[in-house]
Every structure is written in structure tokens, then in C-alpha cells.
């Protein structure tokens, strides 16, 4: 829903969240489906938020880029304003999960004129397929960007086996 609001005598356009839910949640769901082919199944983040009633936290869901190389996949997640110690990456039962918290620099918003930044916990999960070597995933964190390197399992090509003929 978009409307006009008068402020100090001048009209300004004001945008608000669509009535259908949290802004960007549909975008996140579409992205989850798009990268599903790389990971073998669609990301389960949006489904998890919907099932646990945490849809409001979806705004803090980190945005990711995924690059598919020959021998590994790189997943980078933007985490601006988040400290490295406040981020956790884990793999359990074939699901890669990034969790963390963006902490406020102030204890209270008293006296605030404008507060646009979001704070709180976030979680993003991806189902890994069988081509990922989950035991050798590495992570680095620099300038608010988490970089995960997911090595692929070396493809074993079947070798023909010579069978002796007796006779």
C-alpha cells in the first residue's frame, strides 16, 4: 500500500509493507527456490520461519550469493554490523545453518528521531545435497561478509575391471 503524507507542508510518498506479510519474505522464498538446484533441495529458511511463527525475523535473514565452481561452491552472506563472535555456522543431518545476532549499540531508543536499522537474531538454513563434502566446509569472516567454501566430493569414475576367462 502506497500513499502520500504531508510533512511540513510538502507531500511525500510513503511506502508501507504489503498486507500479505513481511516485506521481502516473498523475495527470500523465490531466492530459496532458485538456489535449490545447487544444494539439492530448496532452502528451508522460509518454511522454518513460517512454521515457528518467526516471520517477523525474516527481515534479518542475511542475503547470500552462491557461486558454483568445478570443485567447490562458495556461499557469501552479508552480515553488516554483526561481530564475528556473534555468528555461528553448523551442519546437522545435511542442513547447513547460519545463525547469529545483530546487537544494538544503544540500550534504549529513548529520544530517537529516526530508527531504521534492524537488530535481533537471524537464521538461514540450506539443505546440502550428496555432492557436498560436509566434513570439510571452511568459513572466513571479513568486513561483515561471511564466506563459506563448500568442497564437492571428488567424482569417482568407474574403472573397467578385467575379468579373466577360464577355460
Q: Helices, strands, pairings?
A:
Blueprint: E1 2-7, E2 10-15, H1 25-34, H2 36-39, H3 45-52, E3 64-68, E4 72-78, E5 87-92, E6 95-102, E7 120-127, E8 138-142, E9 145-151
Antiparallel strand pairs: 1-2, 3-4, 4-9, 5-6, 6-7, 8-9
Give the averaged pLDDT, no decimals.
Answer: 75
- Biggest β-sheet: strands ordered side by side in the sheet: 3-4-9-8
Number of strands: 9
Strand content: 25-35%
Order of helices and strands: EEHHHEEEEEEE
The total count of helices amounts to 3
Largest sheet, if any?
Answer: 4 strands, antiparallel
What distance lies between the first and last C-alpha atoms, to the nearest angstrom? 84 Å
- By helix and strand content, what is the structural category? mainly beta
- Rounded to the nearest angstrom, the radius of gyration is 22 Å
Describe, in plain words, how this protein is organized in 3D.
There is one protein chain. The protein is mainly beta and 167 residues long. Helix content is 13%, strand content 35%. The protein has a four-stranded antiparallel sheet with strand order 3-4-9-8, with no helix packed on it. The longest helix has 10 residues, at 25-34.
